[in-house]
Amino acid sequence: MKSGLPISMALIGLCCLGFAATAETASAADRTGALRQTLSAQEARLGRTNPALLPALDKLAQERWRDGDLAEAVVLRRRALGIAVHAFGNGSPRAAEAMIALAQAHIDRRQYLDAEPLLIIAATVLEGGTEPASPALADAFAGLARIAAAHGSAEAGANWAERAIEAAKSRPQRSSKPLLALAAVRASEERFADSEQLVREALARDRERFSPDGLAVARDLSQLGNLYLRQKRYAEALPLLQQAAAIDQQALGPAHPFIADDFYDFGLALDGLKRPDQAGKSLAFAVKLLGSGSEKDSLRLAYAERELARVLRAAGKDEAAKPAAEGSKRILDKIEDEERDRERQI
Length: 346
Fold this sequence. Notes:
Low-confidence stretches: 1-12, 14-20
Helix content: over 70%
CATH superfamily of the largest domain: Tetratricopeptide repeat domain
Number of strands: 0
Shape: globular
Oligomer: single chain
C-alpha cells in the first residue's frame, strides 16, 4: 500500500488539487449523465413509482455520493424509500433496507436526528420478520451505535454495537462496521487500548476483503488516526491520516466532504505538532472545500471554521480569525434553531 503523500507535498498540492482532478471530474460527470439518462428512460417507460427503478436510483445515489454531493444522495435515497414503501409496504424488508440506506446517507452528513428513527424502524422490521435476517440488520445496529456514541450515550452505544457484531456473525463476509462502531463507543469512554484493537481488527479484515487502497481501508485508517489525535499522539496519527487522504483523493470527487475531513484532521495533527502555519493552511483548505459544495451550511463546516479561528487566534491573527469564527457561529445558531423547531413539532 502507498504510504501517502508527505505532509509538505500535501500542503503544496492544496492549490493544484482541483487542476489535477480535472480529467477525473469530467469522467465522473459523464458517468452521472449516463446514469441520469438511464433513469429518465426507465421512468418514461415504467412510470416514476415502479420498483424496477430502484437499481438505477441506487447506482445514481452511489455515484453522487462518490462525487461528493451528499445532499443529492440523500434526495435519491429518500425517493427510493418512497418507491419501496409504495411497492412493498412500510413493514417489508425491502423498505427497511431502503431506510437503512437513507439513514447512512444522513449519517455521512452528520444528520443524526434524521438517521436515528429510520434505523430504529428498520431494525424492528428486520428483527420481527419471518424471513432469515437481512444482512442489513447488522448495519442498522452499527449505525445506531455510532449515533449513540456521538450523543455521548456509551452504554446504549455498546449495546447496539454488540447486537451488530452478533447479527454480523451469520454473514459469509462479515462487515467491519460493527467493530468500528464498538471502537467508536470505546473511544468515547476513553478505553483507548480496546478501541485501537477493534479498529486494527477491522483494518486487517478490510485489507483482506477489499483492495488495500479501497475506501473501507481509508475509513479504518482515518478512525485509527482520529483515535491517536484524541490521545494527543500526533506524530503517530499523521501518517495514518496521510494514507487515508491519499486513498480518498484517488477514489472520490475532488470536493468530497471526506477529503475536507482529511485536511481538517491534518490541521489538528499539525497544530498538535506545533506547526501552526501548516495547520492553518490545512484547516483553511477544508473550509474552502466544504464551502464550495453541498455541505456549505453543515455542522461539518461549522466545526472546521471554529478550529481554523482557534488556530489563527493562537497565532495572534485575530483579524484573520474573525470571518471563520462568525461563519461557525452563524451555522451553529441556525442548526440550533432548526433543532428547536423540530422539537416543538414533536
